[in-house]
Amino acid sequence: MTDIHTQFIDLSELRLGMFVYLDVGWMEHPFPVSHFKISHPSQIDTLRSLGLQRIRYSPDKSDLPRAAVTPSLHQDADTDDVVNAQEVEESEEERATRLRRDLLIKQAASLQVCEKQFTSAAQTFRQIGDHMHAQPEVARAMTEQLIHNFLGQILGEDEAAIRLLSEKAGEKSSLHSINVTVISLLLGKALKLDKTDMLHLGIGSLLHDIGKLELPDRLRWSDEQFSYAEKQIFHEHVSHSVTLGKSMGLPASALLLIAQHHENVDGSGYPSRVKGDKLTPISRIAALVNFYDNLCNPANPALAITPHEALSQLFTQYKARFHEPTLTAFIRMMGIYPPGSVVQLTDDRYALVVSVNSARPIKPKVIIHDPAYPREEALIINLEQEKQLGIRRSLKPLQLPKAAYDYLSPRKRLCYFFERGLEVNTHFVAEGSP
Which superfamily does 103-334 belong to? Predict the structure, then answer.
């Protein structure tokens, strides 16, 4: 069962036995993982020294004697009586308004957690680039720490979700590398890789394009207008990446992933045209995810296609390039409508897919165009909880009516991260559904 029942508490309420989540950057705390059960008073002291105002904890995963639970977590009988009296006096409209406000606060907090961690990861990635020449051993240590933190996010949970972030998150180089790393690790988990392979998959995926920093700025992103000579220079980013990886002392399997991230199982890739079983399992994953992200986030935004179209093309046009079981697992994990897809629902309303649970991808979470509420107050609806509501078809953003396009703001760049934690019940929001 996924740990979805979490809540925020003040630092003064921390107790031994609480299972807490640190929603800050990987480098902003001294603990080996970002979620754990408090087992010693010194951990409480350390947590309070971080300068946080609140911290998130899971009652379900905590081990608290009833006497240790503070009044703010469980009201006494007198308080319950007051709350009950207020609920009796509260009208249905007031209750709906209050519930909607609470849900908006929770979903904003959940998105903020994802975007804050993405920003921290992007900063770390840039620091790795800054250190890779002068201090390659420091760059390697930073890479390994970041991937260990990523693995702590996905291997400790039964389920994981792929979350679409806002367009403001990340600049071009870090966005692509982190996208590929996040999705590759989720796919590696779906394929049941062991922890060592997952670590090497993460390291290689994060650093697969690090050699582009050795290229002239205008040649760092593939362009259909490249001359033959320019294309050959661009292809050299693979060997540059391998060279830098060797100087950092990366594991052999991570280096091989970097060397093979543009290779295809049918031998049509580059630079060595290796094929079939010569591609390692983690190289197959990274090559597939890298190709997918380049379809959705090309150098020229005018050539971008929707995530739904990208999956369709992978299966219909490019199937021969990729290891079939890996491709099948990828499509199953991403769902028919990956995050970032624009869709029309069965009640004819328009929506943007923002999150897909990789274990249950058929009914994702969406933001629905609803003129009754401002765009900044749009609620995320979990279609899995809406038995009468589903997705009818996928659309291209330009197929949306102008009002729906302006409201949903389809992303020109897709930025992904892990989503965990806060889950909300949104049944009441879709009452107008058939």
Answer: Hypothetical protein af1432 (1.10.3210.10)
